[in-house]
Amino acid sequence: MAAPFLHSQTHTNALIHEKSPYLLQHAHNPVNWFAWNDETFARAVREDKPIFLSIGYATCHWCHVMERESFENTDIADYLNEHYIAVKVDREERPDIDAIYMRVCQAMTGHGGWPLTIFMNPSKQPFFAGTYFPPENYHNRPGFPHIIQQIFHAWKHEREKIEESCAAILEHFTASSNQAAAALPEHILPLAFQRYEQSFDPQFGGFGSQPKFPSPQNLLFLLRYYKRTGEPSALAMVERTLRAMRKGGIFDHIGYGFHRYSTDREWLLPHFEKMLYDQAMLAVAFLETHQATDGKDPLFAQVAEEIFTYVLRDMTSPEGGFYSAEDADSEGHEGKFYVWSTQELVRVLGEEDAALFAAAYNVREDGNFHDEATGAVSGENIPHLRLALHDFAQSHAIDEYELRARLSVMRERLFNHRETRIHPLKDDKILADWNGLMIAAFAIGGRVLDNALYTQAAERSLSFILETMSLPEQNGTKRLLHRYRTGEAAIPAFLDDYAFLAHGALELYQTTFNIQHLKTAQMLADEMIRLFYDTSEGGFHFSAADNEALLMQTKEGYDGAIPSGNSIAASVLARLGKLTSNRAYQDCALRTIERFAAQIQHHPTGFAQMLMAHDFLTGATQEIIIAGRTNDSEIHAMLRLLAEQYAPHSLMVFNHSPQELKHCIEQTEYQISRNNQATAYICENFTCQEPIMSSAALKAVLQNGSSVLL
Question: According to the model, what pLDDT value does residue 705 have?
Answer without folding.
Answer: 61
